[in-house]
Amino acid sequence: MSTLIDLILLTLMAITAIAALQLKDLFGAVMLTGIYSLLSALWFLILDAADVSFTEAAVGAGISTVLMLGTLALTQRNEKSPSHPRILPLFVVTITGAILVYGTLDMPAFADPQAPIHTHVAPHYIEKSGEEIGIPNIVTSVLASYRGYDTLGETTVIFTACIGVLLLLGIGRRREDDES
Amino acid sequence: MNRLVHGTSLALTLAVIWYLLSGHTEALLLGLGCGSAATITWLALRMDLIDHEGHPLHLTFRAPLFWVWLMWEIIKANGQVIKIILDPKLPINPRRFRVPASQKTDIGKVIYANSITLTPGTICLDVTESDLDIHALTADGELGLKSGEMDRLVTRLEGDS
Amino acid sequence: MMFEVAAVALFPAMFLALARAIAGPTVYDRVLAVNTFGTFTVLMIAVLGFMTDQKDFIDIALAYALINFIGTIAVLKFFAVGDFGYQQESKK
Amino acid sequence: MSMQLSAHLPALQIVVPLIVAPLSLLLRNPRLIWMAAFAATATCLGIAVALYSQVLQQGEIRYFMGGWAPPIGIEYRIDQFNALMLILVSLVGTVVLPFARTSVDKEISRQRQPMFWTAWMLCFTGLLGIVATGDAFNVFVFLEVSSLATYAMIAAGKDRRGLTSAYQYLIMGTIGATFILIGIGLLYMLTGTLNMADLAARLPDVTQPRTLKTAFVFIVVGCSLKLALFPLHLWMPNAYAFAPSAVTAFIAATATKVSIYVMLRFFYTIFGAEFSFGTMPLGEVLMILALVAMFSGSLVAVFEQNVKRMLAYSSVAQIGYIMLGISLATTTGLAAGMLHLFNHALIKGALFMAIGAVVYRTGSAQLDQLAGLGKKMPWTMAGFVAAGLCLIGVPLTTGFLSKWYLVTASFDAGRTVIPVMILISSLLAVIYIWKVVETVYFKPALALKPGQEAITEAPLSLLVPLWVMVAINFGFGLQGSVIWQTVLQAARQLAGES
Amino acid sequence: MNWIDHYNYWIVIFLMMLGFYAIIASDNLVKKIIGLNIFQTSVFVLFISMGKVPGGVAPILRDDPTVLYSNPLPHVLILTAIVVGVATTALALALVVRIHEAYGSIEEDEIHEQDQLAG
Amino acid sequence: MKHHSILRIITKLLIPLILLFALYVQFHGDFGPGGGFQAGVIFAAGLILYALVFGLDTASEVIKEWVLMILVPLGVLIYAGVGVASLILGGNFLDYNVLAHDPVHGQHLGILLVELGVGVTVAAGLTTIFFAFAGRGRRNPEGALITKAANPTQEPQR
Amino acid sequence: MISTVLDSLSWLLLLSGCACLLISAIGLLRMPDLFTRMHAAGIGDTLGAILVLAGLMLQAGLSITLVKLVLILFFLLFTSPTACHALARAALAGGQKPLLAENLNTENPISESSPTEQPLP
Fold this sequence. Notes:
Number of domains of chain C: 1
Order of helices and strands of chain C: HHH
Helix content of chain D: over 70%
Strand content of chain D: under 5%
Number of helices of chain D: 21
Largest sheet of chain D: 2 strands, antiparallel
Strand content of chain C: under 5%
Structural class of chain D: mainly alpha
Number of strands of chain D: 2
Number of strands of chain C: 0
Radius of gyration of chain C: 16 Å
Distance between the termini of chain D: 33 Å
Structural class of chain C: mainly alpha
Oligomer: heteroheptamer
């Protein structure tokens, strides 16, 4: 059952992505990107990634859309038609895709319980986190403790982005003399 | 004084909601819940959100009956619109008109307007001092609204406050 | 079983809403479609939570029901004022 | 306590700047923030040197973040190569920061300086974090910290082209980082682990060669984007040319070098030399790209009219030299490449500081604007020439050292054509450096535009760091054999020979 | 080899390449960012699909010892990656705003033209 | 746009609930999906909603810019501070076991604090980013746009 | 016994809810202009959501899940009319004119070439 839902969702995602990318109206494209992120959130849920789904839904539905609209409000809403065909990008993309497909041929099958990632490292988290950390949500255990250092990096990334945006845009009432 | 009452009641409501959401009875989480409720109440006071509009205490007791009535209206209206959509000829007759709103306060008008929008077949486009700008899907919808029943009920719900 | 049926039954509705979002023709139609799609997603998440017996998922649905609103308000702001910083409403 | 402290040096190396960055934002005063940043950077240099001596004494240092042993947790693993890279990054940081203070005062408005210094510290933290970590995914996280800070800093200058070049860099850099992420994901899929040592231990048992090769290709391409290897270097010239001068000096000396470090780490530690150069045709591909980079970079540099861009293209060529050494797939070749990596970082740092001093006085890096500056800014231009000599590879300089070992390494590897190539490409370097020298010393000074201040020697706060950097270069040149032995030892350790 | 085992991956690759094409082929700066979002999200999908265990549930411990949990590690990695993605998007959008202020355009070729004219 | 009573009243009702839900997610990350980042995003969304409906000036009176500028670094400092505290107490960096007498308690405390740090930085950071974007198109006292924002109602090309 | 009744009742509610959602989506596609589509979307937001959530509530029993479902319903009933209203305002502000009966050709109510169908922002 969940395989069926999984395939339907992926197909819907593909349709949405194509539609979003061919729209000339950027506003519409942003709206469709919102749907794309919703669909991926649902998909994450089907694959039991509740925390990821939560994050994607919160980010995709709230923050990304608002920031994109904010940008469009300050810039412009429509895209010019590309004036020339894009052979080189198509070539690059085809090559990259072909390499990836080549890579998938040897991959462990989708949802194979014997795949290495299910037999190494992860079992420790699942079996031991209960006694070592003592909280039910394993994702939180791994995120905040076993790999807490990554999360420190993640927090720093948000901090960096915030500093970067402030460096570029400034906060508060915009002053004429502030500009380069 | 009024702010105090509203603030306390908001804090209590939030704490209750927290408890209902959480269901944990450890001291730590309960403490965090109280702390959260207090923080948010403080923030809401700062934001000036708490008044009869943001935290309509005075409607608490009369609201449930109104909700029941509204649910019934929603179901009836839904039936009509479903019929229209499933009809191969799509017999719509869209119209835009104004209806008077007899509510005295903004919150009364908002309840009226949202109730109108909640019942499919009619949408409130705009709220002005004395009336509402409505878009209806069929003539029935227009007649239903112009009968003024909902207007009266909302005004009664609003009471004297 | 019933949740599986409900989940699958939700897909045609989602697909139609997606079709409206893609077809447009005006951006408001797209916004409306996204909104409706959002409601469907909230219900879908809730149904999936029951389907896989993981009631924690309801939290996500709840969060989404709250956040979905903000996007629409941003749209209103975008078209009515064209600028997110403008002082639009007084507090009273 | 001191015993205890020394055990935590690997963590402190990153934690000190990581804490100083947010803390300094609270100080609000640009001067104070700069001082905090300088103190942190200097501390980092001290820690890095201490770490290196520890590594020499005790061998590889391992540090478990959160006390979780790998592969469960994240570990820091310092060997000689990391330790040297840590020294390089913090040394460049320590020398460039005093230069940056004066230079940034002129290029960035005072009210944005707190943000700027915080971004600088974050970039510095990210670079150190990439180098020190022994966890593949952690590399990605810190790569993004440093990259995001870099994008913002590049766009912070006065030139509007800085914005577009930062945007271009952002797009290319994010593609690169995402490619690396895909590669790491595939590796994880094959082995179930993210720890580098554990990956290395488990990869030989992997029975899915196609996925492994795909992972390898994605990591190579991702790193190449970040380090600006020849066909993927398009973001670099503009980013270097239009960024604030101090930023250019800093990132030119560190960011690409750290990316090369990441690539080497993946080649040697994770995939292993045998897979990288045996199973995959990496040596041949890299050699061709490196040679093309050497020539095309130098050639474009010869015709470039903006000195900053010229130096950026020269960087493309110099990265070619480094990759050439690596592509020989021998330990001496690797050591030569690594030596050139260190040299080039220091040389380019000095060159960009010199040109930054010029920009500080004249406001332009266009070649024709430099006419006659040899008399007006003698010390700055002397510094430029000295660093230029290193770049060309005149005997007794660092540049000569690394090129010499590149040549011997290629003879050892039986590639006799390569020395000729190196010679020709160095001649091109002579041409573009000479172009600057000619303009500066043999062309009459331009008449002052109305309202323009007379051009004088750069302030001491710019000159001192510049000459410190030049002095380090020459010091390295004089201590050639010591330096070579140090690097060779690190290379042997990396290649698993010691 | 059962095709359905890898069908998932292929769609994901298709999505990734779609986003990738939009990044490198479109002239519009905002469109590039949209492409970047799609590209990154698809990479996340690739990661999460690794962690699935048939019949597994979300990795939140339960009392029942027979329960199979999905692999939590990809989830953690992707949480971090999503944050990185948001951060990148925000910074890129800020750059776009500044570029529009400086050039009055968000089309790459128009900006390039202006730079050419200015020398 | 003077009489937007519906929006105003519904927003007034919703914001406390959104904020409460954010804090709920923050502190229940141990038990179910959620945690610092998600909570931060939702909290920021609540504040952004306030700024959208009541205007940026009102919002920045309630949430002062200088407060935000303290909160953004504060979150990182809380996180890193927990790490340094565990260093001082004799553990490795970020080793929460040493934070309390009992390792499991230490882990609890550590995770709680660390998630709080993430939440604070994310909430304040995203709000700041939104303020920065919104402030860019601010109108000057005369009511004219400072930036030349494109007319949003212009016809899109199709 | 009671559980069978509850089960079949929630079956009924869920299925009719899904049917409502589907009809609402069909309406979204069939209706001729934005404002009429809003009416169609309203079905899903109100009756559809109520029925589906009620079906789930019957399954949840007296638990936290029930509270959360009630809260979801509460939020949906508050936000959806507001969002709808906001969108209508935005559309009016953007120059959209509702398609009204007097402009409609009664023979063929869905006229593809009606002037309001022109792509406006």
